[in-house]
Write a structure and sequence with these properties.
Blueprint: H1 2-12, E1 23-25, E2 28-37, E3 44-52, E4 58-65, H2 67-73, H3 76-84, E5 93-101, E6 109-113, E7 118-120, E8 124-125, E9 131-132, E10 137-139, E11 145-149, H4 153-156, E12 160-167, E13 171-178
Antiparallel strand pairs: 1-2, 2-3, 3-10, 3-11, 4-7, 4-12, 5-6, 5-11, 8-9, 12-13
Length: 195
């Protein structure tokens, strides 16, 4: 029953892909970031693609919501609840998760927390000195993803929020994530850029 529930929960996070132009955050090229929340639920999933543009391998070891962003968007009602009802004063948390096939049946997957972090391969150079970007690391539906817990309604109903990604070598990198985006807006081509 627990596995069936986990599989059903995973299925809710199947979402239309968001086409987003890559942006530079330090030495990382990040694109396709978005957060998906279920209607009325405090749990959600975060997706993005990370590419290392420097010759240094790194590792994503954690993530958290930006504290200032949390305080700014907390509603008056939520502030009262957190003041008078300690049980409702749960802090939003972000974890790295992956879908792992079960030993009994590889076609059935379960979600597990990633303990050792996720490697971000380094960029390299060919014999002519041209930079070859590191292999893209994708956090996507059905695979690695950010798991969000206890996010208040004020955040869930916002258009965007900031998540701090913590890397082993690069440290904290604050990334803006659209919330429950749709593809209804007219898509514009990404400007051409060279590395």
């Amino acid at each position: 029953m627990k596995r069936l529930f986990t599989f059903a929960l995973c299925s809710f996070f199947l979402y239309a892909p968001l086409l987003a132009c890559p942006e530079m955050y330090g030495t990382f090229e990040i694109s396709n970031q978005k957060i998906v929340f279920l209607n009325g639920a405090e749990v959600g999933a975060g997706y993005l693609t990370i590419i290392q543009t420097s010759p240094t391998e790194d590792k994503l070891v954690g993530a958290k919501i930006k504290t200032e962003n949390m305080e700014e968007k907390k509603s008056f009602f939520e502030s009262l609840k957190s003041l008078f009802f300690k049980d409702n004063n749960k802090q939003p948390t972000v974890e790295l998760h992956d879908h792992i096939p079960t030993a009994e049946n590889p076609e059935i997957v379960t979600m597990k927390k990633i303990i050792d972090g996720v490697k971000i391969p380094a960029a390299s150079k060919d014999k002519n000195g041209k930079v070859i970007l590191g292999k893209p690391v994708k956090f996507e539906s059905g695979g690695k993803h950010l798991m969000l817990y206890n996010f208040p309604e004020s955040i869930r109903k916002s258009e965007k929020t900031e998540i701090i990604l913590t890397f082993e070598k690069a440290g904290d990198v604050s990334v803006e994530f659209p919330i429950n985006p749709t593809n209804s807006k007219e898509e514009k081509p990404c400007p051409h850029h060279n590395h």
